[in-house]
Amino acid sequence: MEYKKLDTEDINYIERLIGDQERILYGTEINEEYSHDELSDTASYPDLVVKVTSTEEVSAIMKYAYEKNIPVTPRGAGTGLVGASVAIEHGIMLDTSLMNHFLELDEDNLTLTVEPGVLLMELAAYVEERGFFYPPDPGEKSATIGGNISTNAGGMRAVKYGVTRDYVRGLEVVLPDGRVVEFGGKIVKNSTGYALKDLIIGSEGTLGIITKATLKILPLPKKAISLLIPFPTLQKAIGTVPLIIKSRAIPTAIEFMQREVIIDAEKYLGKKFPDSRADAYLLLKFDGNSTEEIEKDYECVARICLEQGAVDILISDTNEREESIWKARGAFLEAIKGSTTYMDEVDVVVPRSSVNEMVEYIHDLYKEVNVRIKSFGHAGDGNLHAYILKDDLSEQEWEEKMKAAMDRIYGKARELKGQVSGEHGIGYAKKSYLMESLDPAAVEIMKGIKQAFDPKNILNPHKVCQL
């Protein structure tokens, strides 16, 4: 596809359309942050950034871009890790961060309707202040809800509650040609034709631009208790996870972490973790409407952990303790990032019964490829995050070792019947691994879906399955 290069006529048209020069950035006005996302080394500047404030603006810009063959890249907070919000073909970038309004809390239908630029931490605070609960809980709290929906981010509470897709009831979407459509709504059940809403969720801005989302919310659990459980070895810690799952006690979250990552987090936050004496830890959370309701589950899990060699069971039943533990967990990514010169990530997911084998494989891999690898993850849902660290390696050494490590990790995930990404998506950086992991027929269907939504391929080109 040959795209039109933005010229003065295009810029003047968009300036007239928006009518607010402060929301339009061009040339040297475009901040360096707009050229990349949080982690990926994929970098490319857009020609023009428009900070949109309404569905009508998004629609008008898309209609113009479609007519003129101008590529458009949607962007939220830029916290992605795979280059999905990078303007590979330059063109127009639509920054949706100013579309950050809460539109309706419907207590009768237990739904919340928001614009895509609402931050995850704002959303959580808004509903909890009103006695409600939005379960999806990705680690990056400064991400936008539009970005979460676009990658189907799941987060730490997926063990009990499921992922973002399970909480999206309806979407307002601007299509590549500027048409505005609604998929789903406040309804709980829907067998009306193809599940188009679910195609948009996880599509990483390649099929349409989300301008409103209607989310399912739940009554807020009245009580939460966490268990921090130190183990003498990683093998003992991670080997306990399948037994916890098999016990049918259902924690809200099951996280695993190693001492070296905790030490990174302590340095990053300037605060001591409640315990850092053991090699490995499981962090579990239970919630419900009373202590008695959740006691049975956590006592069962504590017993299993002690039988498997846990050093201790540390119960966190106050808000202060809860915050210190989970704040450290939320800082792991930034803490690891701060411990090295550069890093790249692997976000694999395997069946829950194979999580111990996958974790141990990643842990031992550094001996084979001679590069530092740190990992942590959502052990209860099989989604593991491994970070390959550059340290003082030369560019050539880094490329060779990083590729060798990634090839082996993704290969092991395939062997265990897993997938390339649990929640970070494919974007631009992980396309080759997607192609290797899926049946070619499935890739062709994906390309056909992209063609049906965006026949001119102007919306976020070169992402997911697009070469």
Descriptive report:
- The chain is α+β, with helices and mostly antiparallel strands and about 475 residues long.
- The mean pLDDT is about 95.
- It starts with 7 loop residues before the first helix and ends in a 14-residue tail after the last helix.
- The protein is globular and about 70 Å long.
- Strands 15-12-14-13-17-18-16 form a seven-stranded antiparallel β-sheet, with helices on both faces.
- The chain has helices spanning about 10-20, 55-70, 120-130, 145-150, 160, 195-200, 235-245, 260-270, 290-305, 320-330, 330-340, 355-370, 395-415, 430-435, 440-455; strands at about 25, 50, 70-75, 90-95, 100-105, 110-115, 130-135, 170-175, 180-185, 210-215, 220, 225-230, 255-260, 280-290, 315, 345-350, 375-380, 385-390.
- The protein has four domains: about 10-100, Uridine Diphospho-n-acetylenolpyruvylglucosamine Reductase, domain 2 (2-Layer Sandwich); about 100-220, Uridine Diphospho-n-acetylenolpyruvylglucosamine Reductase, domain 3 (2-Layer Sandwich); about 225-335, Alpha-Beta Plaits, CATH 3.30.70; about 340-425, Alpha-Beta Plaits.
